[in-house]
# Entry
Amino acid sequence: MVPKKAFFTKGVGVHKDKLASFELALRNAGIEKCNLVYVSSIFPPNCKLISKEDGMKLLNPGEITFCVMARSETNEPNRLICSAIGMALPKDENHYGYISEHHGYGETAKKAGDYAEDLAATMLATTLGIEFDSDIAWEEREQIYKASGHIFKTTNTTQTAEGNKDGLWTTTISAVVFVGDQLNQ
# Structure
């Protein structure tokens, strides 16, 4: 079972019940009808990143659906929460890439997204033997990674939200979803 297609999605939900808040975040992301199975951090070789719209057409109610998901939740009024997925893809499509998940508090979408993207790129760089100084800023390392000729693309998708002012549960999710009948093809 090696996926051939994947897409990014994200969502936010608010409800008095924690679980219902998560369900609403899944609905907002468009993946509530699937039986989600969380997998770890590898983006398969030769897997194609497709649009959310194209990916949604391949989902079927009740389907076992593999994803990498970041999730954050709070019932603290006005607390900033974030969920971010980072991805780093190698130039050689026959090599695997990396997906990272990050969830936190008090971070802007840019900060959380950059962190997740940096994490994925760093994991990929270490497997490719790219030398770098982990103490320099992400923007500098990103240029080093891309200049190496081994890393083709880095990206992220991030969802932030402020905790509901009345203390209702607020949930954010970000995910990479593996879709369709690609598991056997």
Notes: The chain has four helices and nine strands. The longest helix spans residues 109-128. The chain has one domain: 5-184.
